[in-house]
Amino acid sequence: MGRLHRQPICVASALLVPMTTLATPSWLGLDGVPPSWAVLWLLPWALVDGPVSGALAGVAIGLVMDGLNLGGVSQVPALLLLGWWWGRLGRRAAPVRRTLNLGLLAWLGSMLLGGSLLAQLFVLAGWQLAPALQSWGWHTLWCQALVTGLMAPIVVSLQLLMWRRRVPS
Amino acid sequence: MASTLRSGNSRWRGLRQLTPWLLLVAGLLLVRFSKGAGFTDAYALISRPFWPGSAQREWIQSAMDLEQRSKLMLLERDNQRLRGLLGLAQDGDADGAVSAAVIARRPRGWWQQLELGKGGLDGIGVNDAVLGPGGLVGRVESVTPATSRVKLLTAPGHEVGVWLPRSRRHGLLVGLGSSRPQLRFIDRDPDVRPGDLVSTSPASTLLPPNIPVGVIQSVNERAVPAAQAVVQLIAAPEAIDWVQVHRR
Predict the structure, then answer these.
(1) B85-96 pLDDT per residue, tens
(2) I want to staple B92 with a disulfide (CB 3.0 to 4.6 A). Which of A28, A91, B21, B208 is the partner?
(3) What mean pLDDT is reported for chain B?
(4) Can you give the residue ranges of every domain in chain A?
(5) ipTM of this predicted structure
(6) Do residues A169 and A1 lie in contact, with contact meaning Cβ atoms separated by under 8 Å?
(7) Is-contact A79 A115, C-beta < 8 A?
């Protein structure tokens, strides 16, 4: 089905993720929390290119994003899982076309990503996260999931449209 | 009978003649107890066209600025000399500072950081202090040849030792992800109150000494094991386009 990874222009589109992450203005977010561009790029990629490619792309984009961040916690495990899951959805289920479904998938993905980051913070803090840090973590998680879910119908739909044209099933 | 009527009439006439004087006395008393409010207001209204113009105000302002600058210069020189005698680190001087543009910012979210447009090639190193207009913003976390990444004071888990000049107490400023970090004290009674200035320690070797950081917003004296305070940072990372990096 998917041969997206053999098209250099499609692979090169991954470069937009770190660039957009760096260039996101503060108004393009919820309470200053920006959307997860990695999730918004990985979702259509995995849906079109399958679980193995999705998982590998998740690891690759996760490593790049970890390099751009301060460190401490990693996005790689969550993105790997998401790439695999969305790849299986793209292969096994009927093609996802509805914008609402795309928004829901992106929202779930962002929740999983935020949840994994929060869990890592919890472990790093010795299983005792200060209440103020907990409330900040939940606030960030919900804000990011919401703004990612809201942007997905536009961003992901466009990518799906372009990539499905290039790699017809 | 006629004489009594005449005397009554003359009494009323006398009172009528006194009325203006009584009114005048009442008016004067009013002026006295109102601290001359009516007079000063009227004077202000009449004399407004003759008030000193903006030019004169600017001259006075510039003279005052010059006076303040000269005082500051003398104090700084004195401070440097005394610090030299005590063997403490010197204040961040202009020679050690590098101006850098903020090329990307993420003041909220999971990682709270700034990307600067200057790096190792300009002499910036890890742990250098980063100052915005008003005070300390954070510290350099990593450096590439052309860029550097700053960990903001608000970043979760970021800890910086600070000083309260009024009460002369030390504290630990801890980032909690929100825009207002928490100040933890070691003493049970840190003698701190809202409005107190928070700065870097005068004896600090990790950061430039005596750099303003923020202002105490609220104090929780019931916190265990010691009091805690919420600090409002002076330099807001959301609105900074240029910063000064103080090389160590």
Answers:
(1) 776 655 555 567
(2) B208
(3) 83
(4) 4-166
(5) 0.87
(6) yes
(7) no
User: Mutual orientation of helices A37-49 and A76-92 as an angle, nearest 10°?
Assistant: 40
Chain A from 27 to 46: CB within 8 A of any B CB = 29, 31-34
- Max intra-chain CA distance, chain B: 119
The reply to whether residue A69 touches residue B111, judged by beta carbons under 8 angstroms, is: yes
Please name which of A152, A46, A54 lies closest in space to residue A100, comparing C-alpha atoms.
A152
- DSSP code at position B157: T
**Res. B28 pLDDT band, cuts 50 70 90:** confident
d(CA A21, nearest CA chain B) in Å: 9
Confidence tier at B139 by pLDDT (50, 70, 90): very high
CA distance B149 to B104: 9
Assign domain A4-166 to a CATH class.
mainly alpha
When mean pLDDT is compared over A24-28, A69-73, A106-110, B91-95, the highest value belongs to A106-110
Contact A113, B109 (CB under 8 A): no
**Are the beta carbons of A140 and B176 separated by less than 8 Å?**
no
How many Cα atoms occupy the beta-carbon half-sphere of A32 within 13 Å?
Answer: 17
Q: Are B137 and B153 in contact (CB under 8 A)?
A: yes
